[in-house]
Design a protein that fits this description.
This protein is of the alpha+beta class and 1089 residues long. It has 38 helices and 23 strands. Among the domains are: 345-441, no CATH class; 523-592 and 605-675, no CATH class; 704-824; 826-948, ATP-grasp fold, B domain (D-amino Acid Aminotransferase, Chain A, domain 1, 2-Layer Sandwich), CATH 3.30.470.20; 979-1088, no CATH class. Residues 951-960 have a biased composition (Basic and acidic residues).
Length: 1089
């Protein structure tokens, strides 16, 4: 715009000079006597007119092709140097005059044109009336809404504006009748069927519809609103907008100016003001050049040539003053800056910004309002590039300005932020990232020294810190360990003291129990049965079904046979309603005395109130810990509270299983005694080695053997000595101290694999009676000791192959826990029997049960019992029991315990031998099943005769009514009161879990498996588990042993056939039990014959 104004003024100056030159020629001619050449004057005017017309056309063409830019942010006036002002005084005067005209603002045009000298009007100035008319026309033209403005522009300047007609006014003024109706055709829309069903095929789009545009098609529904439209080709063309066109550049300015000027146009006022002919003047070129430089905002000064006269400048000033109106024309509406925002770029070379470059000056001018924050970032960039010796970097000024707005506050920009403002960022970043680049810049040597010193100090301090942290960590560990050790020691002391206090209270309660036992036996009392297996943790960890094993003795409920006893049974498994109902019916089958006068209903009601089955509330809280029942009860406070309420104010005591410290803890919580010895005493003498001590002190016959073996040399030495002393014993048995039911048992047949065995027998025969002397054994002992290790490693076998698959594993645990080595009876027919004894607190003892063992899977693992025993003379057995009981009393043992014996015929003396092999200080399974047998029959066991008798009625005594006399006088044999029972709590069949107990009992009833209350014979089951249902207990009674064994085997066979299929036999021990029963039946038949 400044160039256009300058060009505008230069054209006026040229026209003014031409007119002045013409005027001087005429005035000079008028003062002389020469004749004026009119043709020359006309040719001069014609040349001036043609020149003005050509310049006007160039001005209009340049103005139409110009690009409108925003006005400069700087002040319109630019300060010049004093030198320039002194050399161009006329130019400066014209600028001051124009500035004064802009500042006045009250008048748009000057009414008079000031002459070059003085304040008088010039000779060629228009008249005052004409000036007023021009001023009024200019005001009219400045208002486009004026009704005369259009005609005035058309008449004077030939400008035709578009005909804007107010249609509303035309309609109001339109005469005649108004015709209503549509003037266009209806447009097609989406059919209703397609609007209802979007899956239908849309109608085709015609060419006429397509001409209406995409928006019309979308509004009419022909194109779905959610459709993605792509126009090919795209209606938007991206290209660079031209700032200037070299073809339209003014040819006059192209050779005068040192740069390519912006195209310009001539204002319409100029073409209207100077219609006359004028001549061109070369003198106006410098004036145009100077004015153009004055109008630019670049701040570059240009001096005029020395040949330029002040007259030309004054002439230009005169013409501009005469022709320009005093009122400024309104500037066009500027284009938004965001649309024309140009990219400002500048260069930072060798850490310094090129501040004199035109790009940098344009950038500084464009962002003058926010230059402070931008300059801060430029300084940081210079410092960065200087430190890293970056040769050159091209900066994007616009991005830098945006970055300055973000980091205008205290936050410091990072290198990544600066990289977004650098056009050659990849190269710059590569240079900066180069190792050691920082030390090539200024002060690089100092920075390298600082880096080396800081790295060394860091390494030194880091090493010292690591040592300090390690020492601190070690000190913390030591301190924490010491604190934890102190706390654990204190807790252990407290627990130990608590255990001692509990043990002291246990002894006090046991002493009180001994004193009050006769009274308690005669009064009403509560017996709490706690069938806990308090074995050591390593044994319980190997038991996969410890809860089921602890529940094999549910027959303890039969203690309510004494009318003065109430039973609380602590059950280790969940019990459902079906099991509750079964035991309610079973306990209602109690045999009544023959002289009883109570009604059955009254006695049944009394029985239901005298037993409770309680499941601890923490029974499912420790599924993976294999805790004993007493431990679970200890962590069941609600169950403890319930038991307290049940025994409150009544005499009560606990009958436990395998006693441990947790039983004492529970007893202390309930404040009641335990009918048992102290836990340490009970655990000591329940081991295999402890039982050997009891038997030896009681002088009971035991098999040859050694106990308390804890090392392999001791094992080899002991076994060699035993083999040498007992050459007639073929098999030797190894038993762990703490195991039970054959779990920790192994055997080895030594003499069949002993190479020196025949020689040893000859040595024994050679020495004869002297073979009992130790010195006679030495040669044989040396040879046997040499072969024992190899025999054990090759021919020793664990009994429980699932728990100990190899001898090495068994030997490891055997030596770790201790054990015994004893001889196996040297006979093919060996019978094992179990006797259950009770030592009362007062010291009295009585035999409660005695029965022969039945073995299923192994001869060393008990499966069931035959009650009463029929393999040993009662007197011999009673004597051995009496000796063992006396030894137990001497060691403070009381309560329930069982003794295992084996009997066989000695092949040398042909006499029956009875060996005591095991002692278990606990309530046994055989004792529980014997109680059930006594409960349902009302019978009793006579240990002196080894018989089990039940009360029976004669048939004539069955009714008090009168009976018709029998015709015959034959006397019927009296009923047999003797009964033989086969019991087992370890029946296992996996197919039992697929049927419910109700179906199982219906099946048994269909096959005649049941119990006859009158005959006091038959089959009774004990339910062990209500969830899996794969374990059972069974009791079979008959009046002879063979009948009981046969019935038991038949029941097992029937049950197996009913619950098994050919393709689903399941896991069971039924068949092995049947085989063992068949062997017993064969032995019994031989004995009878």
């Amino acid at each position: 715009m400044h160039v256009l104004h300058v060009l505008h003024r230069n054209i006026l100056s040229q026209v003014q000079d031409d007119l002045r030159h013409l005027k001087e020629t005429i005035s000079n001619a008028g003062g002389s006597t020469e004749i004026i050449d009119l043709k020359a004057l006309e040719s001069a005017i014609t040349r001036t007119e043609i020149s003005v017309r050509e310049k006007a056309e160039q001005f209009i063409q340049a103005s139409n092709n110009q690009v409108v830019t925003l006005p400069s942010l700087e002040a319109p006036g630019i300060k010049r140097t004093d030198a320039f002002r002194n050399k161009n005084s006329a130019f400066s005067m014209k600028s001051v005059l124009l500035n004064k005209q802009k500042k006045t603002g009250s008048r748009l045009l000057q009414p008079l044109v000031v002459a070059r000298e003085g304040n008088k009007p010039g000779p060629n100035a228009p008249a005052p009336g004409q000036q007023a008319k021009n001023l009024r026309n200019l005001q009219v033209i400045s208002n486009p809404a004026h009704p005369v403005a259009r005609d005035l522009l058309h008449d004077k300047y030939g400008v035709a504006f578009p005909n804007l007609v107010n249609r509303r006014d035309d309609q109001e003024k339109a005469p005649g009748k108004v015709v209503t109706g549509t003037s266009v055709d209806h447009l097609s829309t989406l059919p209703k069927a397609n609007r209802v069903d979007a899956t239908r095929t849309p109608p085709p789009i015609s060419e006429d519809d397509a001409k209406k545009g995409i928006l019309s098609l979308i509004e009419r529904g022909l194109i779905p609103p959610a459709a993605e439209l792509t126009l090919e080709p795209s209606p938007v063309r991206h290209h660079q907008a031209p700032v200037s066109d070299s073809k339209l550049t003014n040819p006059i300015l192209s050779h005068l100016l040192p740069f390519n000027p912006i195209p310009f146009i001539l204002h319409p006022i100029l073409s209207h003001t100077f219609p006359s002919r004028m001549g061109s003047c070369r003198e106006c070129a410098f004036s145009l050049h100077a004015v153009c430089f004055k109008g630019l905002d670049t701040g570059i000064s240009q001096e005029a040539p020395p040949g330029q006269s002040n007259r030309s400048l004054r002439s230009c000033e005169y013409i501009v003053t005469q022709t320009l109106p005093s009122t400024e024309v309104p500037a066009p509406v500027p284009t938004p800056a965001s649309e024309l925002k140009s990219v400002h770029k500048f260069v930072i070379q060798n850490g310094k910004t090129r501040v004199t470059s035109q790009d940098y000056l344009n950038f500084k001018q464009h962002y003058c309002l926010s230059w402070g924050s931008i300059l801060t970032l430029i300084v940081k960039l210079e410092e960065l590039f200087s430190n890293f010796s970056v040769p050159i970097a091209f900066i994007d000024g616009d991005r830098l300005a945006d970055l300055a707005l973000v980091f205008e506050l205290e936050q410091e920009p990072s290198l990544e932020h600066f990289m977004t403002c650098i056009l050659n960022g990849d190269d710059v970043e590569k240079i900066i990232r180069t190792p050691g680049r920082r030390y090539l810049g200024p002060n690089g040597t100092e920075m390298a020294a600082i880096k080396i010193q800081s790295t060394w100090r860091r390494h030194k301090d880091r090493t010292a810190y690591l040592i300090y942290r390690k020492q601190k960590w070690a000190a913390g560990v030591i301190a924490i360990s010491w604190i934890m050790n102190c706390k654990l020691s204190m807790i252990r002391k407290q627990l130990k003291q608590t255990r001692l206090n509990q043990l002291d209270r246990f002894r006090i309660r046991t002493k009180r129990l001994k004193q009050e036992w006769p009274r308690i036996q005669q009064s009403r009392r509560v017996i709490i049965h706690l069938p806990s297996m308090g074995y050591p943790q390593h044994i319980r960890d190997d038991l996969s079904n410890i809860s089921l094993l602890q529940n094999l003795q549910m027959a303890r409920l039969c203690d309510i046979a004494d009318p003065k006893v109430e039973v609380i049974y602590i059950c280790p498994v969940e019990v459902n309603e079906e099991v509750y109902q079964y035991y309610a019916k079973l306990l209602a089958m109690k045999a009544r005395p023959l002289s009883s006068t109570k009604k059955p209903g009254e006695e049944d009601d009394n029985i239901e109130n005298r037993y409770k089955i309680i499941v601890p509330d923490a029974v499912n809280s420790f599924p993976t810990h294999n805790m004993s029942l007493s431990s679970i009860l200890m962590y069941s406070p609600r169950t403890i509270k319930r038991i307290r309420n049940l025994i409150k104010g009544r005499d009560a005591y606990i009958v436990s299983g395998v006693v441990n410290k947790d039983d004492v803890y529970v007893a202390d919580l309930l404040d009641i005694p335990i009918l048992s010895a102290e836990p340490e005493v009970s655990q000591l003498y329940s081991t295999k080695s402890g039982s050997k001590r009891i038997f030896r002190s009681g002088q009971v016959s035991i098999p040859p053997g050694q106990f308390d073996i804890y090392s392999l040399p001791q094992l080899h030495e002991s076994l060699s000595q035993l083999v040498t002393e007992n050459l007639h014993v073929e098999r030797w048995i190894f038993k762990m101290d703490s195991e039970f039911n054959g779990r920790g048992t192994a055997y080895c047949d030594v003499t069949p694999h002993l190479k020196c065995y025949s020689w040893a027998l000859k040595e024994c025969q050679r020495y004869g009676e002297k073979w009992a002397k130790k010195w006679a054994h030495e040669p044989t002992l040396i040879k046997v000791s040499a072969e024992i290790p190899d025999i054990l490693s090759r021919h020793a076998h664990p009994v429980n192959s699932e728990l100990y698959p190899t001898w090495e594993g068994f030997l490891h645990d055997f030596l770790k826990r201790g054990g015994v080595v004893e001889a196996c009876p040297p006979s093919e027919s060996v019978t094992a029997l179990t006797v259950d004894v009770l030592i009362e607190p007062t010291g009295d003892s009585k035999i409660l049960s005695m029965g022969d063992q039945i073995h299923a899977t192994s001869p060393l693992m008990c499966w069931g019992y035959s009650v009463p025993q029929a393999s040993v003379e009662p007197a011999v057995l009673s004597a051995a029991i009496e000796k063992t009981t006396l030894a137990c009393k001497l060691r403070g043992i009381m309560g329930y315990f069982s003794i295992d014996f084996v009997t066989f015929i000695d092949p040398h003396t042909m006499e029956q031998q009875v060996w005591a092999v095991d002692l278990k200080l606990q309530y046994s399974d055989s004792m529980a099943m014997t109680n059930l047998m006594l409960y349902v029959t009302g019978g009793a066991i006579d240990p002196t005769r080894a018989s089990f008798e039940v009360p029976v009625k004669r048939k004539r005594e069955e009714s008090g009514r009168r009976r018709r006399r029998r015709v015959t006088d034959d006397k019927e044999p009296p009923p047999n009161p003797n009964r033989y029972a086969i019991t087992s709590t370890r029946l296992l069949h996996s197919n039992l879990s697929v049927i419910h107990y109700s179906v199982f009992f219906q099946m048994c009833r269909a096959h005649g498996i049941g119990y006859d209350i009158k005959e006091k014979a038959g089959t009774i089951f004990t339910l062990v588990d209500s969830s899996k249902r794969d374990h059972l207990g069974m009791l079979v009674m008959s009046d002879d042993l063979q009948g009981s064994l046969s019935t038991f085997a038949r029941n097992l066979s029937v049950i197996h056939q009913e619950i098994s299929a050919p393709n689903m036999q399941g896991e069971s021990n039924f068949q092995s039990a049947i085989d063992d029963i068949d062997n017993i039946l064969g032995t019994t038949s031989e004995n009878v014959e």
